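#struct-pred

JT: dropping the chains for the assembly here, can someone run the whole complex?
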Amino acid sequence: MILVTGFEPFGTHKSNPSEEIARGLDGRRFGGHDVRGVVLPVHHREAAARVEALLRAHDPDAIVHIGLAEARARLALERVAVNVMDYAIADNAGYQALGEPCVPDGPPAYFTTLPLREILAALTADGVPAYISNTAGTYLCNQTLYSTLHAVTRTGHRARVGFVHLPLSPTMVAAAGAELPSMDGPLMLRGLETVLRVVAAA
Amino acid sequence: MILVTGFEPFGTHKSNPSEEIARGLDGRRFGGHDVRGVVLPVHHREAAARVEALLRAHDPDAIVHIGLAEARARLALERVAVNVMDYAIADNAGYQALGEPCVPDGPPAYFTTLPLREILAALTADGVPAYISNTAGTYLCNQTLYSTLHAVTRTGHRARVGFVHLPLSPTMVAAAGAELPSMDGPLMLRGLETVLRVVAAA
Amino acid sequence: MILVTGFEPFGTHKSNPSEEIARGLDGRRFGGHDVRGVVLPVHHREAAARVEALLRAHDPDAIVHIGLAEARARLALERVAVNVMDYAIADNAGYQALGEPCVPDGPPAYFTTLPLREILAALTADGVPAYISNTAGTYLCNQTLYSTLHAVTRTGHRARVGFVHLPLSPTMVAAAGAELPSMDGPLMLRGLETVLRVVAAA
Amino acid sequence: MILVTGFEPFGTHKSNPSEEIARGLDGRRFGGHDVRGVVLPVHHREAAARVEALLRAHDPDAIVHIGLAEARARLALERVAVNVMDYAIADNAGYQALGEPCVPDGPPAYFTTLPLREILAALTADGVPAYISNTAGTYLCNQTLYSTLHAVTRTGHRARVGFVHLPLSPTMVAAAGAELPSMDGPLMLRGLETVLRVVAAA
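RK: done, full complex below.
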């Protein structure tokens, strides 16, 4: 089974394309793997707790977290998660972490464990703009990725783990009236299908 | 009849989304107006000559030129065309204009004559990122827009005239491997359909 | 005499580098020309009225307007002024023009009349980032440039007229805490000295 | 003693502002600490070897690496170094690492150990644009930072270690003729003086 997670809306955003993509992939099947798509709360404790419960309950072969990265123009395949929470804005519980670790006494960072080069090559061949990113930021996205990698490493779990950051949706940019890059939902979905095809075959 | 024009590929680009959009709209019908979609050569003399011949032959109610603007993130509704050719790269005939006028003794500029605010409101309501742009550059796009507005003004032709700049397509950005904004073909097409609906109703 | 104008602060800006540069150049001398530096109000009527009074009173050989263009990274040598006021924010009198002309029945645009290519070559040789810009926007900067070019043209005045847009100052970007380009005051001043040297010699 | 390192030019760059800043700080004194400024080769093995030799020879209290980050607009105070070399271009020896570790079997990452928040506050108060960056890239800059942090950690050395990325210089942007942010040499130097003042007092 492949676990795919998106996030609920946060900050000033009324929607979150990662939520829609996770829902759109739920129940799909890639290379013999069922996909379970769930939506995580934008909450400094509950997001990680939710993933750990899913890890225990479903024993997934792979976990693909998806999140929103305002101002990025391409799908960002994250290479690394760092042990720091330094929120630019509060989470949906009103909590704003400023420089604390995701896991006290955890290592400084974990590398993600999906085949990034292969995924990038497949996306590029499919005409979906993507790149390998060296920072997942210091908000919930990085924290969730770090927590999952920490849990998987600590328990010796087999799941390979990765994170894909999405651009804003066209609707969000139209509403904002600002010169920001966007990616249309069907293209994002096609991109994530490609990611899952490679992950399922790896 | 509404004349829609795109451009053929130029420079290092292997394709041009404006060509595909113009072809995709050819033969369509909006509010009682037939659409004729044609592809213009990226040539310092022939693009304008081609439009003038179409103007004489088809007597259109409106002309919507479409072109490619690398690095823009949204549909750009051009407000003005200026009487200058200052090409950053040569055209497809190998000619690079450097500071010469589009029309010797022509006025410095023409305003476009489509209802830009109405079009922008319709695009925004449809969730298509767009804005009103104050420069169409100084390459073939601006020149074609200027030439058409000059021809229409000089002959007292009824056609309203405008220009929509498109972002790069996702395929182009994927191939370039650069952090550049893009817009997917179906979304561009939906945007231009909205433009034509407003133009046809005006 | 060369008239140099800057603008007072506006919007959320507490300072305006164009004001400081205009003051810094006041009383200087370039190639036999005295420089008079003045600061214009960010006011939809008074800025133009002030320049017209200075034009009558001082009979300048050249007029170099300077203004602030948030988000630009280089000195922008404006090529053209268009007959439109379309303010993104209100001026300092609380007036927000939305699509009205600078001068009713004025021509759509005027080209500026300084030797832009020569100025750009001199700046580049001096290591000052600069480019020729095709839009001065639709706020006070464009309006002032348009009004001055209109007044000079209408009266047959000899003054050559241009506009240089400045990036934000480092202090403004440091305070904003945003990833925006800036240019340091001494470098801006050196750039404008180069502009005036070329203008004085032309 | 505080060790400050810059890099020699690389790629298509004819100069490197980090070299000039390191030279400009050599021999200066901050809060009782002498500064030794050295220029490192852009070489996949020799840069790290050079720093390790300096570490043994001079027993510095702090090490501030400085490097060039094209396209950044502000001083970037790096938070973390990751154990990966993934060069976009070859180094000056013609070697292009593609996905190999800086130190085989080294940990995934090290956090830098300078007081970043204090440094950022001091820079902001001084009007120098700066921010805390979460990625030093995957070229020589990140590799040198990683290697130094690894050496210091392994040997239990007291030196605190950090990295400051510089924007392009104005001369470089003027020569490139591209819309890229820059920072003037005197402002960069003032920024690094502020960094060293805080580091010396910590």
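JT: nice. The first helix of chain B runs from residue 17 to 25. Chain B is about 35% helix and 25% strand.
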